[in-house]
Records
---
Amino acid sequence: MVRQELGSLFHNDNWALLRTNGTQLCREGQSPLVWKFCPKTKRMKIHEYQAKAILEKYAVAVPKGEVANTLEEALDVAKRLFSGGAKGVVVKAQIHAGGRGKGGGVKVAKTLEEAEEYTKKILGMQLVTHQTGPQGQKVQRLLIEETAPIARELYLGIVLDRATAKLVFMASQAGGMEIEEVAAKDPDAIFKAYIDPAVGFQPYQARKLAFALGLKPAQINEAVKFMTGLYKVFLETDASLLEINPFITTTDDRLLALDCKINFDDNAIFRHKELKELRDTAEEDPLEVEASKYALNYIKLDGNIACMVNGAGLAMATMDIIQYAGGSPANFLDVGGGANQQQIEHAFEILLSDQNVQAVFINIFGGILRVDTLAHGVVEAAKKTNVQVPVVLRLEGTNVEQGREILKNSGLNFIIGETMQDAAAKVVQAAKEKAATKK
Ligand code: GDP
Ligand code: MN
């Protein structure tokens, strides 16, 4: 199961969100079944080096460094840093996952030779961290940075707290470790400042956090500037999460963002052309990338029943009812309100390319997307892809009779559910039988 987002620490009852183009469904107080299936909000992630470039624009201090895609580039950067007076360089894997340090993706090199050795080791490796899953993520880029003389490792973060409908600025002395762990074991170790949207993050709040971090008096003003800069970054980029872990003090009393993670709210990304370009599809699930090309909302889950649905609300209900019937959804695929035949075909192909899928459940309420259009798309796609798993449909709405007629006359073996419950029961049964024949 995908790890839940940090934001959920603050609202365990309603953390499950799924976003479709422009709609956000908050499942506050609803069936716990749904939460299990929806631990992943749609948010655009970027690399640490990109996040740090944004911080620099806001005058938030980061170590000197550059991104490198090859061994040659990495050595160039390292040479430059050493000849600029660096005592060491740190070689950092750039992947869209945390926990790189523990996984062996962050190494400090004292010499150019060491930098070469670590670059060779890390670049191209399959880096496994607690966030990548056991298959890991291939490292295609490195950040080469001047090392900082660390005095203390602290934590700063900003997330939206949905319970209070406010941004919350968090600070902790337990930097460098997983904040989820800190929150679970010792929640009092995280200091929080809730931000009133009408007045924004106030200097007194920053000072309070800075004192709570046990910073020296001489560092307080600098820390206030630092935190205010982070808040500005968050607001102006429409971020959904911003974390500096670790936020460090140096032995010569400077403050630096040693690591930085920023996620953006997908629903606002249209306002930020420059951010959109930071997307690195090599880091994303290939099927999710494929789906986004055709404006389909696809999220991979870990069950075996593929779902094609129109509308996020219906998708939620569909996942619930599959679970009630004793099954488990393989994905969330929302073709949207006004899908055309091509989109339906692509959607079908995407569903079937997931190896875990034992049965397909198509649950459509025909509105703008008429049921006959859908039926045409499904028939075409089923023929093209030579579908080998049972397909169960539950169709209602505009042109439903024509739609059913098309399916019937297709010569293909579709299973029709009379109601949602009936269809769910049928698809769960079909998936079970299919799975049994494979064994
Ligand atoms: P993460 O494991 O993916 O969160 O990657 P980080 O960027 O947070 O790096 C992990 C750890 O490596 C940090 O907590 C630091 O302890 C260490 N580290 C990172 N950069 C430096 C550096 O410049 N100097 C030293 N000495 N340690 C560093
Ligand atoms: Mn970190």
---
Amino acid sequence: TKRIGILTSGGDCAGLNAVLRAVVLHATSNKGWEVIGLHQGTAGLMARPVSAERLDPYTMTTVLLRQGGTVLGTTNRGDPFAFPMADGHSVDRSEEVIEGYRQLGLDAVIGIGGDGSFKILRRLAQQGGLNLVGIPKTIDNDLGLTEISVGHDTAVQVATEALDRLQPTAASHDRVMVLEVMGRDAGHIALSAGIAGGADVILIPEISYRMERVAAKIDDIKRQGRNFALVVVAEAVPTESGEPVTRIHVGGKATYGGIGHYVSERLAAMTGAETRVTVLGHLQRGGPPDARDRIIAQAFGVHAVDLIEAGKFDRMVAWQNRRVIDVSILEATEHSQVVDPKGTLVHTARGLGISFGD
Ligand code: F6P
């Protein structure tokens, strides 16, 4: 029998609880192991006493399958190798995390994370001899070697629904609606939602744009007799001159959103159109996972348990060609996957007459 730990790390997304439930069901009911849920990512292992709970199958009701967020809590990107202290300094607390793993007597740990989390978890695993298996989650879908990560599909669904709701009000008021969506470094959410939601313009960091071209597209639409338009902008898109504006500053504090306002203002000035901007923000992360995320989450959870049984560590479960396989965690983090400007979806969008402003 085994005792395994599981933790969620980095930004939350829809489907994390579905992963937890799948791991617990397969590990306990089928294998007879014990599963320990670690609180707040690596912070639970750093705490004394260690902050963790035993996860039993009877507590893993189907409610969890549908529930957004993570019942274990997640790290607030607190890196144990450079842990921020109250006085502003940072200290290396990695040994405390490793000691926490030992205190719990864990045989292995499943980390649900994105590339930032995996880099930290791998370092911990190597330093302390921890047996690590990774499950990819990121709404941004920029992890390498897996076609899809948990949370992305729901985020695309939410952004698509936002366009469904913006279109009627845009049409009623003859407005250009700008929707800013998430994606720290990649335009996957913007591209997929833009196609699914019938956008006229999609701006992503992978394709450089000129406002002149975007304005020309809006003017074109007007000439054809349509008085409204939908523009999707990924948060990571810089201004036309290349300045990053992911965060706007209000009262000296960085708050969410930025580029959507820039595009909206510029478009209004250049075309005379009335524009409005919506920053979708964290709505893309919370909420119940859609069907595809639930399926991927549970397939990953079951497979991760099988990897531990097979003694395959330092591996990440991945979705490729309609199946779950396992890949090197290191390689997955090294080959982050942004939008391919020559890929199928960009080609599809261009075929539909969607402009990238290039
Ligand atoms: O990586 C996921 C993500 O949601 C990005 O899309 C976004 O840039 C970032 O996290 C937001 O981070 P925070 O929740 O810390 O504001």
---
Amino acid sequence: MEKRQELYAGKAKSVFATDDPDLLILNFRDDTSAFDGERMESLERKGMVNNRFNAFIMEKLQLAGIPTHFERRLSDTESLVKKLEMIPVECVVRNVAAGGLVKRLGVEEGRELTPPTFELFLKNDALHDPMINESLADTFGWATPAQLAEMKSLTFKVNAVLKQLFAEGGLLLVDYKLEFGLFNGEIVLGDEFSPDGCRLWDADTREKFDKDRFRQGLGGVIEAYEEVGRRIGIGAD
Ligand code: C5P
């Protein structure tokens, strides 16, 4: 398998073609962005830490029967993935109120959400990823009702697996964002799962171990990501 040209550079990852039309290489960079790219910083080791984190989580999800694009980790900062036709809709599940939900609805941060909520956002930086719903996704052709139903079902399956995994490390999975795509017509989990796209709090102290440390200027961002890795058993190899 040969690495070919760069196809796309996102805010934290770059995507490369390979000599196999069905496979891509994701390169996890040290770049860290917040507020739709308004704030950018390079954090040492982040690419490596997130690549390992994502590989570990994707393998767990695959073992639990959730189809993912992940094939294998190639190096410290690169992974091989299936090429998906991405669906431009972000799926967010919240177990505990934080972030956008608190801002939007004025509910108390830290309130347990029973049942957990499910929200859809359009992936569009220029519009700041506006909240959408199934009707809008259907009308504008972003995803069909059947695809959305499958995305919702898979997003909640991920919740069951990961809530348990993080709880074993003394961490609360507060919320997270997933992105899906199509591979041979099947809905498959794409993008990444790392502390960049979820909120993780210490179950007892509620200390933050995720990207909110960067957004809120708390420092110790990568150290916190590494601590999560240790707690859930990610080895250094
Ligand atoms: O900002 P908000 O509270 O809506 O985010 C919910 C969850 O989704 C958080 O864990 C956040 O990190 C993640 N998210 C993301 N990328 C976005 C929007 C939200 O990873 N574009």
---
Amino acid sequence: STWWSSVSMGPPDVILGITEAYKRDTDPKKVNLGVGAYRDDEGKPFILPSVRQAEERLHCKMLNHEYAPIGGEAGYTDLVAQLAFGEDSPVLKEKSNCTVQTLSGTGALRLGLEFITKHYNQTKEIWMPSPTWGNHPQICNTLNLPHKQYRYYDKKTHGFDLCGAMEDISKIPAGSIILLHACAHNPTGVDPKKEEWIQLSQVIKDKKIFPFFDMAYQGFATGSVDNDAFAVRQFVNDGHQVMLAQSFAKNMGLYGERAGALTFLCGDAESAAKVMSQVKIMIRTMYSNPPLYGARIVQEILSVPELKQQWLADVKSMADRIISMRQQLRAGIEGAGNKQNWQHITDQIGMFCYTGLNADQVAKLTKDHHIYLTKDGRISVAGISSKNVNYVAEAMHKVTS
Ligand code: PMP
């Protein structure tokens, strides 16, 4: 026996398991639609031109490798908060925010939820959309934070279930926390419309529920970072003191660099300072301080006007390619003579599409056509390219008719 003989085997990560099965498949037609990372039209990882330019500029600066401050560089946190809340946001001007760099979006969620377990003095219950990103409940489980679900996705329309969501939210106990995907909902690709966000903001305010936004895809949904920040800014305008997790994995393609941020809006500068003091203690005992490289790239892009312009164009180019693949996929399935309604493919937004395919159809797609995706029928539209879109459309037609 060893010191670890009592450890049991844990289940593999669902999404990474799909990629492994894809890698083992030797068929040249194989397609991986499981991966949650952007691919260019050649199916390759994409290094944004703005990121390249930022890297070159950083290289010339010959920066050292000293530690970052515990909460990250202020130059970084100020800029990322402005990107989320808007440059003229009053909450930033009055410095009532506490913003720290985190280990990308996951790190922001983990830190934020851990902070809740320790310092939140109301109903420690996290309400999540059904369905939601698998890591949301998992992080809560790790922290022993109870979590529940509110209705979000309507299986019949493949769209947002406004009535169900409003009804469920109106029954959430006061003081609870509601988790909201700011844009490009994962896994469904279904976002509330602007008028619907306004209604959600109202009911959440009336019921005294605390909103925690997860914004992992700012710019990825519509191609505009301001448009995609609509929900967050609407809530702030309506007087909510939100919490916000941000990630630059997708919108800057900085996946492995782990650049993200966590913001608490605290109402006034004094309580922001107190929250900051406690967040720093929490960070100090977990990983001491955040990594520099990705944050430096983000800071360079957001602070140099030409780079920022280039980046906005880069984000738009990614969003546009995804939108165009949605159109081609839908046209391909319909063009093959499929009689079902596929409008949701183009109505949904962001990296993912919830196709409506059931587990049997997904299994067929993988077994007969070498197309890999999660059992819930979610496809990563970023995995589709002009080369494989017809093949995927044909296959989806075949397994659904
Ligand atoms: N939230 C959601 C909804 C996501 O889809 C992701 C990425 N898969 C994240 C957070 C965080 O990703 P990362 O830690 O890479 O920033």
